[in-house]
Amino acid sequence: MSLDTAEKQKLIESHQVHSTDTGSVEVQVAMLSKKISKLSDHLQLNIHDFASRQGLLKMIGKRKRLLSYIKDKNVQKYQDLVKKIGIRG
What we know:
mainly alpha, Helix Hairpins, 75% helix, 0% strand
């Protein structure tokens, strides 16, 4: 359930902090969120795919850690990112 190049580029452009930014926390969270949503859809159709379920749980944990890092550094940036991505936070 990887993202193709066009999807990645679109996510990077919409969440980047500056023009050459490809790995900031905001971009990482956006990419993880997109991967999580794709994998969730896959797992609803393939309920016995336990390896993908384990990968999904790892991605959710990583996104949670990145979001807590943003929240510790700047609460306003955290709230904006959660609203922009559309997750509960």
